[in-house]
Amino acid sequence: MPKCQCSVACKRSSIPGSAFCEVHKNCPKLSPLTGYEPRYNPGKFNKTRRMRESHNCFAYAFDYVDIPDETICSEKKCDVPFHQPGYASGYPKWDKIRTKRCAELLARLRGDIPGLIAPVTFERKCPKGTSKIALMKTLRNKDYHFAREDSNGFWSHKPGGTEVTNLDASDRPIARPDLADWDYCKKGSDLNYSIFCAYMCVPRTKKSPLRRGGTRRGRSRKRTRRNRRSS
User: Fold this and answer.
1) Do residues 21 and 10 lie in contact, with contact meaning Cβ atoms separated by under 8 Å?
2) Any idea where the domains of the chain sit in the sequence?
3) How far apart (Å, rounded) are the C-alpha atoms in residues 219 and 76?
């Protein structure tokens, strides 16, 4: 059973459909807001196939909109590469170096946005002009996943080229990504983001220079439409 997200110390199971257990069902312990958090607006990324299938969890975490030209991405077919950490700053592509470790991912983020990516705890407030994102990865470095804190204090994410959601793998609201359920194996995927890497403060007052690249993955028929890979 998924655990309560109110506190690391709480070992109780959460109420079905809730982030919290019966004891902490009115838990107020959300991460402090700065006022620069994006609004939860899934329609922005879900509305069209061009938008939905050309943006992944990385682009969504940064609220980054970069719709490809219609000649390569249309409502009928869109198979462009996703934005990837490190590509904007010249790091090797994932098909040449398969090391999606926490340290590697964090280094790539700092390379893309020098001096503007800062690690932070869940309880600490980010600086003015920034807000929190969270980074997780699979046990054997197969894939990574990002989530972002929204203006309502809860978190949302975009699994690969599928729809934005504010629920975890157990269909619960996400109050704390480090305590949420990211095991999508139960939904027919082979991805379980069981390793939590970090919370980070990222800039919200200007557009971050993200870049696409590599080979589009996650089109296997064995995976559900909902859980294609982030990369």
Assistant:
1) yes
2) 1-30, 31-231
3) 15
* Tokens, residue 203: 């800039």
Token pair, residue 103, equals 């340290």
Can you give the chain as a three-state secondary structure string? CCECCCCCCCCCECCCCCCCCCCCCCCCCCCCCCCCCCCCCCHHHHCCHHHHHCCCHHHHHCCCCCCCCCCCECCCCECCCCECCCCCCCCCCCCCCCCCCHHHHHHHHHHHCCCCCEEECCCCCCCCCEEEEEEEECCCCCCEEEEEECCCCCEEECCCCCCCECECCCCCEECCCCCCCCEHHHHCCCCECCEEEEEEEEECCCCCCCCECCCCCCCCCCCCHHHCCCC
Q: How far apart are the first and last CA of the chain?
A: 28
pTM, 2 dp: 0.91
pLDDT digits (tens, 9 = 90+) for 163-201: 999 999 999 999 999 999 999 999 999 999 999 999 999
Per residue in 195-226, pLDDT tens?
999 999 999 998 888 999 865 544 333 334 44
